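Hi W., the 4'-deoxy-4'-aminopyridoxal-5'-phosphate complex you wanted:
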Amino acid sequence: MVTTTRIFNFSAGPATLPLEVLEQVQRDLVALPGVGMSILEISHRSKPFEDVLEGCEADLRTLGAIPDGYRVLFLQGGASLQFSMIPMNILPPGGSADYIVTGAWSQKAVKEAKRVASVRIAATTEADNFTHVPTQSELQLDPAAAYAHYTTNNTIFGTEFHYVPDVGAVPLVADASSDIFSRPIDVGKFALIYAGAQKNLAPAGVTLVIVRDDMLRRTPSTLPTMLQYGVHVENASMYNTPPVFAIYVMRLVLAWLMKRGGLEAIERKNARKADKLYAEIDRTEFYRGHARTDSRSRMNVTFRLPTEELEKKFAKDATAEGLDGLKGHRSVGGMRASIYNAFPEEGVDALVHFMHEFERRNG
Ligand code: PMP
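Structure:
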């Protein structure tokens, strides 16, 4: 039984999980029904966990319409380890990869790829303080690139690609950490998709990798075992002990998502939530959105107030009213409302109401 009052949690990640999921975790924590042991205690080689892992993959495949020819992996090390694993596995030493740079996370991905081989910047919006993502015509792509990498949603700056870059025959790699499964995704356009799960899919501790079979043949045999995608594929993500609890919760989150109509339905809900917040930002000069209109993220809504003092007061007053986690990332300043899949629409309504009142009192 949930006994404490929950507030609205706008954190960028780890982030709000569906209440029904938390309640089920709590109900079944001491002993999984029919198992008599906690999910925190059972062996990852046990039948109940095997069922969880298989079910999780099956639900991911159904929800994401993941075609045959793609492998689904549950890894550790976060999206940050993927910044390294990707070039180590699929960027040959003499080769070059294209990176589209749209924020701090893309920059970190570039930094790690440069340790392996050469990197070309196919586009960057840094000069505009990452207020937008590039358009297709602004991409300067190398047709000989080993792959092209981009960040689908920029968690810190609050911008999002509303199209999938056309990179021709070059394998497309995406960091989808902060908008994975927030809308339908055409997996067939990608060679590799990765995401730290702690925003839209699960608690922290598991990283989802969806990789096309042909990418597995590039790995140099000298690469340490734990860093090879092929090893994790051959061992069905059980080469070593996987993050059992996080995968278990992911399974419950996916079931929650399916029950609510899958990715089309969640996209409609996410659009509705984001539209309400942007409408409030656009209603008045008091609030200024960071992202350019055409690049606005539906997951992380970033905005400024007239002064830093007011921004501090906004965060403090909001917390006092049960709206937590609204302080923006230090590199952008201002406010950030992260409203991932599980974030309730009532929380958005409460924030819009608070913004209105805050302006009335301080504007
Ligand atoms: N990429 C993006 C887009 C992110 O938002 C984050 C985390 N906020 C990361 C990568 C890094 O993820 P992790 O902490 O799982 O390494």
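The chain has a mean pLDDT of 97.

W.
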